[in-house]
Specification:
With 558 residues, this protein is of the alpha/beta class. Helices cover 35% and strands 19% of the residues.
């Protein structure tokens, strides 16, 4: 049986004019700035002008990802369409895709099958230019930093202690470590430098956590770019760069409005990765979506130990929002991979492998219920090869924890395939009262916060902090940053920092290699294991399959 590709399904969709979608989202035309017929920016003034109260917030997260796939974004979009199917006033809030994964191996972030946001090609490529604006602001700061050093260095910046990197929205391992400023004095000061992918830039995190243009400028001013010879921090404000950077970002700060295949309003804005950043769409877009619908469905990147943890401990804390219910997405195939099977061995029923792999799901479920104290449901993305015995096994295990399991077929059936999930989510929102709690308090030390996440959320035994990282923590605490939450960067493929430890490993230690402050984003970045902030392309990148014909029709995107 042959299936249509995601891009073929998206290109067959008869999109509604964005003005019609805006009306469905209770947005008057004066608040939208159109980018063609099917995309728009939404003016921030709507947040102060509307009298609508905020609706219910549903977070979609997932088990630890595997090559078998889980379908978290697809479930998020399909659930929103399903809520609309059963008569609810609903919006969806998502992140924007990064070109790095689009041209690499993971693909985009517009959903899949019959649960997508459109125009799919635009969203997965340049969209409304937000990523380019973020990259430009990031690199303007880098240029002004090196220019200051070139013209006398009156701030006394030690070039060996510069922490600010340049960025580009592409997977390019060649740029991880560079030496620039070569060619004589006229061409700058030679120094070690490097690039992050744009999704890992602090500018991305700042944009996604800002509440207004004023707050954006304040946060930008506080960014630390390096240290002086006597070890004092140097900020973006010291370099007088914040105003120009804000000018570059003023339109990027406005959320983007698009639609699902079924015409549900979708706010797609911001795109930090969850393994190296906080992994959530912008706080402004989420708050806007909450005002424009009675139910808002959003997602957080990768597994619940990464995206959901940061959604709760960073985004909810900073944006002062509280989720009403959580959906944890799983597949039988992925759980069997956690049980030790190869991707080529997933087509046959194997309850033994499922029994070995299901603890991964159960740990995520336990974290949502017992650490964050929120009601949740497990959504099983059903594949044709899944057997009734395998489905029943998962349902039984989840029931033992007091959590219901619902089958979802939104990839194949769109909103209709998510109606049972939608009804369970409504029941959770209306009947099960959560007691939302963070995994740690603000007044703990940086080390105590790291240990809380490792022990409570990851299930680890201890934290091994390298001597250099201990010195960095001591320095940051002396500078007064200990009240910030921690943003732990680790592999997405395991609860541990070792990607080969699948399932729900126990008795492991997390190795902290580096600790730095994102003073603009107002969190502490903790780098563990072998995590890198600039990915590389695989041997056969997705870019090799992408093409466009003489009429401008794109093929091979998915």
């Amino acid at each position: 049986m042959s299936y249509k590709t995601d891009i073929e399904i998206a290109q067959e969709c008869k999109m509604r004019p964005i003005t019609e979608i805006a009306r469905r989202a209770h947005l008057e035309e004066k608040y939208i700035e159109q980018y063609g017929r099917y995309k728009a920016k939404v003016d921030l003034s709507i947040l102060g002008d509307t009298l609508r109260k905020e609706g219910k917030l549903i977070l979609v997260t997932a088990i630890t990802p595997t090559p078998a796939g889980e379908g978290k974004t697809t479930t998020t979009i399909g659930l929103a369409d399903a809520l609309a199917h059963i008569g609810k006033d609903v919006t969806v809030a998502l992140r924007e895709p990064s070109l790095g994964p689009v041209f690499g191996i993971k693909g985009g972030a517009a959903g899949g099958g019959y649960a997508q946001v459109v125009p799919m090609e635009d969203i997965n490529l340049h969209f409304t230019g937000d990523f380019h604006a973020i990259g430009a602001a990031n690199n303007l700061l880098a240029a002004m930093l090196d220019n200051h050093i070139q013209h006398g260095n009156s701030l006394g910046i030690d070039t060996r202690k510069i922490t600010w990197k340049r960025c580009v929205d592409m997977n390019d391992r060649q740029l991880r470590f560079v030496i620039d400023g070569l060619g004589g004095r006229i061409n700058g000061t030679p120094r070690e430098d490097g690039f992050d992918i744009t999704a890992a830039s602090e500018i991305m995190a700042v944009l996604c956590l800002s509440t207004s243009i004023t707050d954006l400028k304040r946060r930008l001013s506080n960014i630390i770019v390096g240290y002086t010879f006597d070890d004092k921090p140097v900020t973006c404000g010291d370099l007088k760069a914040a105003g120009a950077m804000t000018a570059l970002l003023k339109d990027a700060l406005k959320p983007n409005l698009v639609q699902t295949l079924e015409g549900t309003p979708a706010f797609v804005h911001g795109g930090p990765f969850a393994n190296i950043a906080h992994g959530c769409n912008s706080a402004i877009a989420t708050k806007m979506a909450l005002k424009m619908g009675d139910y808002t469905v959003t997602e957080a990147g990768f597994g619940a130990d990464l995206g959901a943890e940061k959604f709760f401990d960073i985004k909810c804390r900073k944006a002062k929002i509280t989720p009403d219910a959580v959906v944890i997405v799983a597949t039988v195939r992925a759980l069997k991979m956690h049980g030790g099977l190869n991707k080529t061995e997933l087509l046959e029923e194997n309850l033994n492998a499922l029994e070995r792999g299901v603890p991964n799901l159960l740990r995520h479920v336990s974290n949502i219920r017992n650490v964050y104290k929120l009601p949740c449901v497990v959504a099983i993305n059903r594949f044709p090869t899944d057997t009734d015995n395998e489905i029943d096994f998962i349902m039984h295990k989840c029931k033992e924890l007091g959590v219901n399991t619902v089958l979802s077929t939104v990839w194949a059936d769109g909103g209709k395939g998510g109606e049972a999930l939608a009804r369970e989510v409504i029941r959770l929102c209306e009947e099960e009262q959560g007691d939302f709690t963070y995994s740690y308090d603000d007044d703990l030390s940086i080390t105590q916060k790291i240990e809380a996440v490792v022990k409570k959320v990851y299930g680890g035994d201890s934290v091994d902090i390298a001597p250099n990282a201990r010195k960095q923590i001591e320095k940051l605490e002396k500078l007064g940053f200990s009240h910030f939450p921690v943003c732990i960067a680790k592999t997405q493929y395991s609860f541990s920092d070792n990607p080969v430890l699948l399932g729900a490993p126990e008795g492991f230690s997390i190795s902290v290699k580096n600790v730095k402050v994102s003073a603009g984003a107002e969190f502490i970045v903790v780098l563990t294991g072998d995590i890198m902030t600039m990915p590389g392309l695989p041997k056969s990148p997705a870019a090799e399959l992408i093409d466009v014909d003489e009429n401008g029709k794109i093929t091979g995107l998915f």
